[in-house]
Amino acid sequence: MDDRVATRIEPGFEQVYFSASDGTKLAARDYGRGRPGTEQHATVVCLPGLTRNGADFHDLALILSRSEAAPRRVVSFDYRGRGLSDWDKHKSNYNIQIEAEDVLSGCAALAVKHAAFIGTSRGALIIHVLAAMRPGIMSAAILNDAGPVIEGAGLAQIMAYHDRIKEPANLLQVAETLKNLQGAAFSALSNQDWRDLAAASFEEKDGKVVGRFDPALIEMLHAVDLNVPLPTAWPQFDGLRNIPLLAIRGENSSLLSQATVDEMSSRNPDMLCHTAPGQGHAPLLHVGELPKVIAAFLRDADKA
Q: Using one digit for the tens of pLDDT, what is the confidence trace for 185-235?
């Protein structure tokens, strides 16, 4: 392992720290590294959503890394300003281009030369950028509820739910608020799933419940003018044509429309599609049949 990397053992994974090119201290979770058999299967790199972090992939990472049939190393990143990574004093650095560069720095530090990438929401957009920057690093890709076209209604929903979670008394209240706001779109989730979501994105610190992300991210989200058409990324999506590709859409998603998925399929007939029943934006990847769908896709991608 690169000497720039610091590691701490946690249950089920190693908590890893490395430096971005500008010196920002960044964090990642490393599952299954060194486990016998993992060298025979592609490493999986997981990229979370806008204010989310690598903890979102914990359950899926345990399933994939502990598989008897196809054990895999799984690395899930905290972008700058999220999770255990440092916040950036220069808020303009919270952009997809720099976050993609940070992912590449992390892959270099962790000796990940070639991997299957799973991107949820913003993570899927970063995959699009990586397709242009470093296509050779990806052996396969899974786009979880985001593609070349982002629906303004979905961004508005993300804004609304962050606005409603202000100064909660405890993590249980966060979980209840999340369920009240999004429960109709996420009938597939259990009460424990809501509690896990709350714990992954909020924490109790100095007697207060605070987000595991820089609030500047929400300020930047509110600066988006939803009255103006959002930019699309069709050329970058076309750059994914030469690798195995799976698009997952939440049945009730407001961010990724079925029309966009249909156009993606038209441009890339080899792309596989899966709808996550009882889930909105963005599907939890350990719920229902998704772990089996993902594991099967990765096994097939290994053979491609």
A: 999 999 999 999 999 999 998 889 999 999 999 998 888 887 888 899 999
Q: Which domains does the chain have, with CATH numbers?
A: 6-152+231-303 (3.40.50.1820)
Q: Distance between CA atoms of 232 and 165, rounded to whole angstroms? A: 30
Q: From 159, 26, 42, select the one nearest 86 (Cα to Cα).
A: 26
Following CA atoms 126, 132, 134, 138 in sequence, which dihedral angle do they give, to the nearest 10 degrees?
Answer: 60
User: Which residue type sits at 96?
Assistant: I
138-190 pLDDT, tens per residue?
A: 999 999 999 999 998 888 888 887 777 877 889 999 999 999 999 999 999 99
- Cα dihedral 127→6→78→76 (10° resolution): 60
| 276 contacts: CB under 8 Å, gap ≥ 6 | 188, 248, 249, 250, 251, 283, 287, 288, 290
Query: Which of 66, 71, 84, 90 is closest to 16 using CA atoms?
Result: 84
